[in-house]
Description:
Layout: E1 2-6, H1 10-15, E2 21-24, E3 32-38, E4 43-53, H2 60-65, H3 67-70, H4 74-82, E5 87-102, E6 112-114, H5 117-129, E7 149-152, E8 160-163, H6 164-167
Parallel strand pairs: 1-3
Antiparallel strand pairs: 1-6, 2-5, 3-4, 4-5, 7-8
Amino acid sequence: MKGLIIDEPWIGFILKGEKTWEMRKTVCNFRGTFALIRKGSGSVVGAAQLLNSLPPLISPEAYSAAQPYHRIPTARQKQAFEDGWRTPWVLAAVRPLPRPVSYFHPSGAVIWVNLDPKVTAEIEKLLCSQPEGPFLQTVATAASGPASTAQVKGHPHGGGSFPASSAGLVSHGVDGGRNPRLSGALVI
Length: 188
């Protein structure tokens, strides 16, 4: 299992289901389950799914409109945008661990850590031992055609829309409303 290193306050927002986009400087090709590592702690504190890596947000306006997903405060957005933190990694099925799991942090690891099989086994054991309570479900897809706005439906922070041309995104239905577990999903 891989672990993604995330600093506070961002990892806290993710673990509480309040942040669905992890903003990074580059596209990510990895998809699947990964561990959430609190930066500087030496501990894995949760697990999640990486569903997608969207195209970079191309304007400050799109960045501002996406604030409910990346949670970067307005006062910090200009600097984050200018520094290149524009690429949303879309997270889902976030599950905090009931207790942190220590891991060995190799020298030079700043984004991903390949976890030891024993650490992975401990994480999986903890995840299997707890009931599957409500956790964040996020679904997003890259643009596949023209649209005037990207709709945000049923997001924990309320609905809304932002220009699809600015974000490079298109509205897609998740399952036509048939699955109540997706009622908190972000549909882009």
